[in-house]
Amino acid sequence: MNTGLLLYIPYRHLENRVMDAIRAAGFEVTLAQARLLQRINPGGSRLTELAEAAQVTKQTAGFLVDQLEKAGYVQRVPDPRDGRARLIHATDKAREAAPIAEAEIARIEAEWEQHVGKRRMTQLRATLKKLCEITDPYR
């Protein structure tokens, strides 16, 4: 099994568990919507920025933002730097899901640490952070 797949399988497990926890708490969002939501900057994001960060077309991002806006998870506001542009902001409703996701991630990481041991988990995190130096285009 290649390293990319070895990284992806645990991530997919984590993502599925987080989505299950969010849905169980009453938040009706799809995985595609959630992936877009988590990429919204605190000060708002332009649609083109979201599309690029989520690696989807501008049309797909626009469709997802339309759905999220109808459900009350985002709002579009004028960009103060450019009156022609709009910024997408997460609403309080969207931000209420964050603690649920964070708590589930903490549970999962604790399970992983119990399974592999504290030292290995610490080494894994340090190694992955080091790899982010050369792989994360948004850092």
UniProtKB/TrEMBL annotation:
Q: Please name the GO terms that the record assigns under molecular function.
A: DNA binding; DNA-binding transcription factor activity
The signal peptide here is none
Q: Which Pfam families match?
A: MarR_2 (PF12802)
Boundaries of every HTH marR-type domain copy: 1-133
- InterPro entries xrefs: HTH_MarR-typ, MarR/SlyA-like, Tscrpt_reg_MarR-type_CS, WH-like_DNA-bd_sf, WH_DNA-bd_sf
Decide whether keyword DNA-binding is in the record: yes
Which BP terms from GO are recorded? response to stress
Keywords attached to this Swiss-Prot or TrEMBL record, sorted alphabetically, are: DNA-binding, Transcription, Transcription regulation
Superkingdom of origin? Bacteria
Supply the name of the protein.
Answer: MarR family transcriptional regulator
Question: What are the top taxonomic ranks of the organism?
Answer: Bacteria, Bacillati, Actinomycetota, Actinomycetes, Pseudonocardiales
